[in-house]
Structures are given as structure tokens and as C-alpha cells.
């Protein structure tokens, strides 16, 4: 089976098609400016059938002049079409293509492209809360700890969208998109979740080490729950040699901070912690 992908026609191709239809496609003699044909082409969004149907609607609703010609005017086009409805299927391919374009523009730090895709979605009637939820995901997945303020900002914008809705919240969403686009990027948090997922799937029955179990009853304490627990607050360096990983996962690493934004500090801190353990842990 062959799959044929039908591409949209360009505005120029549609104008040429419409001009030919005006000359040979109708019994009446038509006069239409190039500007009018361009407006029809823009409205039709690359769809030849839509363009020809629009032209036919103009012909059906137009008035013939004394010389027998039918002049197609801008006013007539406005009457026939009303305000242009943007091509945007919130449940179809456009929905996913446009949110993908927004996400990838922000990831690429292209602030102007991100602003464009955001406002194009809003103009098409997309739910602002859906966009805000995607921005929440982006704040952690593509920025993470490189800029802690990113997530806080988007949470506030999400709540603002709930409070005031469209059209007012378009400014707040644009503010969030600008911030996320220009923020330092890191996917270290996202990668940590993907790395740990495999271990979690394979070790669901791995027992919790006794020293960090919750020994709340006498029987639990007799079984060794909580025995050997070391409270880091009482330690000189606020670190202990106590094992907190399951036995079979000791030494596994999930979080690998980058050299971006605030994550530089987290990387330095992590290196200090690892150096301390190398010095104090039993071999």
C-alpha cells in the first residue's frame, strides 16, 4: 500500500488557480483584483477546493453590473466569509504539530518563534490551561534545576489562567514562554527519571534496608527496623556513612548535573558529597 502525502498549495499557486477560474470557470464575466484573490488564497490555507468553493460563493452572492460583468469586491468577501476562522483542529494533527513547535522553539531558546507558536495556538482556540500544563512539564524537563524559578513562574501563570482565562491570560502565557525560552537549559532531571525507571522496574521486590525502615511498633524494633539509623543533623558534616540504597543498587547513579545555570552549584555540592564518602565509607 502506498501512502500519498498531499501538500498545501502556496498562496501564489492558489492565486494562479483562482485567476484561471475567473477567466474560464464561470458563465458570467468576472472582475476580481489580485488583492482579493490573495485574500481568498490566505483564507483557504493551501486548500484548492476551499479556494474554489469560496470563489463560487462570491459569484453566487454577487451583483451583475450594467455592462454584464460581475465585480468581486472586498466588501462582498467580508459578507460571505465573516471573520476568518483559523485553521486549527484541537484534536487533530495541527494540535500536536503546534505544541511540538512551541516546545522545540523554547528548547532551542528561540524566543520569537516560541511567542509566535504560542499565540497562534491561542488564536486558534486552544485551551490556555492545556498550554500551561505543557509549560509546567517543560520547566522541569528542559530547565530543571538550572533555574529553580522557572517552575515557580509557570505555576503562578497556570493559576492566573485559571483565575482570569482568555483573552487576558495570553499576556501571562507569553511572559512564561519568554522566560522559559531564555532560561538556561538542562535535562538532567528528566534523564534521572529515565535512568531510574529501568532499575525500579527490575527491583520492585528489593527490600528496604533495615536501618531506614519505619520501626514504629515494638515488634518492628525487635525485627531490627530502624536499628543503626544515623541522623545526619547530629553529624559534624551533616553526612553519615549509613547505606540508604538497596543492596543490589549501591553505586548506581541517576542524577548527573550539567554546567548550566544554578545546576553548577548542585554539581559542586554533589562532588563534595561524593568526595566525603570516598574518604569515610568503608571499603
From TrEMBL:
InterPro entries found in the cross-reference section: AAA_assoc_2, AAA_ATPase_RarA/MGS1/WRNIP1, DNA_pol3_clamp-load_cplx_C, MgsA_C
The AAA C-terminal domain, residue ranges: 28-107
Record GO terms (molecular function): ATP binding; DNA binding; enzyme activator activity; single-stranded DNA helicase activity
Statement: the UniProt record of this protein carries the keyword Cell inner membrane: no
Keyword DNA-binding: no
Keywords of the record: ATP-binding, Nucleotide-binding
Domain MgsA AAA+ ATPase C-terminal intervals: 108-274
Protein name from the UniProt record: Recombination factor protein RarA
GO terms of biological process kind: DNA synthesis involved in DNA repair; DNA-templated DNA replication
